[in-house]
Amino acid sequence: MKQLLILSGKGGTGKTTVASAFIHLAEAKTYADCDVDAPNLHLITGEKKAPLKEDFFALPLASIDPDLCIACGICYEHCRFHSILPKEVYTVDPFACEGCGVCAFVCPVEAVTMVPDAAGQLMLYKEEDRVFSTAQLKMGKGTSGLLVAEVKKRMREGAVEKEFAIIDGSPGIGCPVIASLSGVDMVLIVAEPSISGMSDMERVIDTAMKFGVKIAVCVNKYDVNQETTEKIEDFCQKQNLHFVGLIPFDKEAVRSINEGKTIVETDCPSGQAVKAIYEKTMDLLLEKED
Amino acid sequence: MKIAIPVDSNIDEVKVNDSFGRAPYYLIHDTETKEDLFVFNTAARSAGGAGIRAAQLVVDQKPDVFLAPRMGQNAADVIKTAHIDIYKTEGSSVKQNIERYLAGELSPLDDIHAGLHGH
Amino acid sequence: MKIAVLSGKGGTGKTLVSVNLASVSEGSCYIDCDVEEPNGHLFFKPEKIEQEAITVKIPVVDQDRCTGCRACVDFCAFNALAYIKDQLLVFEEICHSCGGCVLVCPEDALSEKDKAIGSIERGISEDVFVHTGIMNTGEVSGIPIVDRLLEEIALESERDIFIDGPPGTACIVMETIKGADFCLLVAEPTLFGAHNLQMVHELVALMEKPFGVILNKCQEGENLSEIYAMEHGIPIIGRIPFDEKLGLINSNGEIVSRVDEGYEQLFASLLKATRKAAAV
Predict the structure, then answer these.
(1) Residues A230-237: contacts with CB within 8 Å, 24+ apart?
(2) What is the pTM of this model?
(3) Adjacent-strand bridge partners of C239
(4) What SS3 class is residue C170?
(5) CATH number, domain containing residue A187
(6) How far is C212 from chain A (nearest CA, A)?
């Protein structure tokens, strides 16, 4: 199964808008949303049945038994994450605790135990003909790389359509992005023609290159800044990356999304542009290896 | 000699697993006794550093060589420190990969990727 | 006042708002806590840069004392240690610097050293003090950098402080919020924008900080974020229209309020409205 991952580097460039359009055009049966911090894809893909939900457990949290605690302060002295709140009764800040276990180790009266903690929730939409895997990380949690790996694993395991899968990636260049890159065949980068957008695009391309995947780039809202768009095209040429198209800024796109429709379901300029990019990208994804 | 491979499960006709650090089991095949040992991967559910913990687990079994489809930098470092070679698997048949390795048809695993950096 | 500018996701206009509010507020401070992808400095182009390295503690092994008991390997919740061929290996980029391995070692074989995970750059752009947090790629957490950035401004009472927050709702965002008196939530008008506003709204409400919304990229038609804000009684501090000129200037890395009088006035009004809301 060939996997296409859609990335951006900078947030807000239009990954989910493009990913949802691709899913619609391809009538894709296998797709996932790896942006576990702020998943949006489910808002537009229109699944009918509720998903199967499963709690996701990563690191445990420290828990202080108020009956055993003698308020000696040893845990507070040793905690490096400011997670121990020293009051009359010592408690643990669940948002700051990283689950290292040091407090449990140093407590002289064994008042601290490490308890399982649901860091997020996995959601699997499974209808007879398709599977959509997504997840939501709980507020304040930091272990998103593993959750991304889990989302992709469930997508692969439930894969109905064996030919290809489309993955909406996460923004940035950190661990969740690396986790989403693992095992994919191709990356489509949705870039934005701004200084910060281009800077972030270059960083994510740098990361993607280490994985030896095919890389394609398109520019969204290209007409906001033609000069920077050209710089991006030049960059792609010099780096031998596939430049697959330009999408104009389009108010119709916003309207379409707000109605819960992908941009290729309404007749609009951005939709037309994405159709062309889709053809080129899928050709690259599915072509035989040299 | 003992050959270690990440696998999907611990039953017969098992396939090579896609990942190294998060494979559910490792198969340790002894070419002399023709016996197979399945090692359960306790690292698979780790929040981070799965490759390191998994590599430690398998190195403790003292294999002579590792066969894997891909591997992160950290796991590779552990295995190389143990002076064990790593070869790249092709396809998902465990049996075929072992035979091809013994026939000298597999190549060393060179494209070590950045890994998940512990998350 | 100390204002944290946040959004549920990237690209909504946090940097646009924080950079421009800082520019129209005389002698203010701009603090960039989006340490993974700091962008404010691209607009301010600060001068007279001073750099401070931010470090965390990483274990160092005395291999002669180490007996291979593996107490540390077993203890480490992050799998950052492995014992191979009579050597204890430390994986620095996975280590969360909790100090646990040093504590559990029965042979005193572990001590700690400092490792740089990033830096803070301090400079000036016209009358604005620009502090930028930069995290090295692949590091575990940017929280130590945010802590240091906020430590410095904790006692500041005269200048206005504008904190450009990281996107999302992860722990680093919570750390950022702790340093603020008031939070500005920047939201886009789309379906996705409203969904992300909801997430960051829940976060600031949980942390019991006062907040208000700035609607960015406004165009005609339904603004789902505005509807969300009204339904939940969130004060709307102001609106920034989408217009091509603003988009062009901003995408060229220029500060719109410094380059155009119209935008200077727009942000001056936003600043006034923010002050009013924060003073309540």
Answers:
(1) A231/A198, A232/A191, A232/A193, A232/A198, A232/A201, A235/A198, A235/A202
(2) 0.84
(3) C215
(4) coil
(5) 3.40.50.300
(6) 19
* Chains contacting chain A through 3 or more C-beta pairs under 8 A: B, C
Give me the number of domains chain A comprises.
2
Give the residue from chain B lying closest to C83, CA to CA: B56
Nearest to C32 by CA among C126, C133, C125: C133
Domain that holds residue A255: 2-56+128-286
**What amino acid is encoded at C82 in this protein?**
A
Structural domain contains residue C113: no
CA-nearest residue to C203 within chain A is A139
Selected residues 233-272 of chain C with any CB under 8 Å from a CB in chain A: 244, 247-248, 250-253
Q: In which domain, by residue range, is C79 found?
A: 63-108
- C168/A98 CB distance under 8 A: no
Q: Please check whether residue B118 touches A, CB under 8 A.
A: yes
Closest-CA residue of chain A to C41: A196
Hey, which CATH number is domain B2-102, 3.30.565.10, 3.30.420.130, 3.40.50.720, 1.10.150.120? 3.30.420.130
What chain B residue is nearest to C82 in terms of C-alpha separation?
Answer: B56
Residues of B whose CB is below 8 A from A211: 113-114
**For the segment C208-259, what is each residue's pLDDT rounded down to a tens digit?**
999 999 999 998 888 999 999 999 999 999 999 988 899 889 888 999 999 9
Establish if A122 belongs to a structural domain. no
Residue recorded with tokens 């700051």: A96
- C203 interfacial to chain A (CB closer than 8 Å): yes
Instruction: Give the closest-approach CA distance of A210 to chain B in angstroms.
Output: 6
Structural domain includes residue A123 = no
What are the distances in angstroms from CA C78 to CA A28, A57, A78, C75?
37, 14, 18, 9
The tokens for C204 are 């600031």
Highest mean pLDDT: which of B37-41, C135-139, C218-222?
B37-41
User: Does residue B111 register a pLDDT over 80?
Assistant: no
CB atoms C253 and A194 under 8 Å: yes
| Within a domain: A121 | no
ipTM above 0.90, yes or no: no
Question: Mind telling me how many Å the CA of B92 is from chain A's nearest CA?
Answer: 13
Q: Is A43 helix (H, G, I), strand (E, B) or coil?
A: helix
| Residue whose C-alpha is closest to residue C31's, from C139, C197, C151 | C151
What type of residue is C237? I
* C27 touches C126 (CB < 8 A): no
Residues A104 and A237 in one domain: no
Residue ending a domain, choose from C43, C76, C108: C108
- The reply to whether residue A258 touches residue C191, judged by beta carbons under 8 angstroms, is yes
Q: Is C85 in contact with B81 (Cβ distance < 8 A)?
A: yes
Q: Do A231 and A263 meet the contact criterion of CB atoms below 8 Å apart? A: no
pLDDT tens track for A147-180: 898 899 899 888 876 789 999 998 877 778 888 8
Closest CA to A20 of A33, A37, A9: A33
